[in-house]
Amino acid sequence: MKKLVAKIAYDGSAFSGFARQRNKHISSVCERIEFALRSMGINDEILGAGRTDKGVHASGQIISFCVNGAMEIDKIKFLLNHKLYPHIFIKNLKQVDFSFHPRFDAKRRGYRYIFDNKFHNPFISKYISNENYGDKERMQKALNLFLGKHCFCYFKKQGSPTKSDIREIFVARFYEHKIFSQKYNVIYIEADGFLRAQVRLMIACVLAYCRGEITQEDIILQLNGKKQCINLPVSPNGLYLVRVIY
Question: I need a labelling partner for 117 at 20 to 30 A (CA). Which of 53, 103, 131, 204 fits?
Answer without folding.
Answer: 53
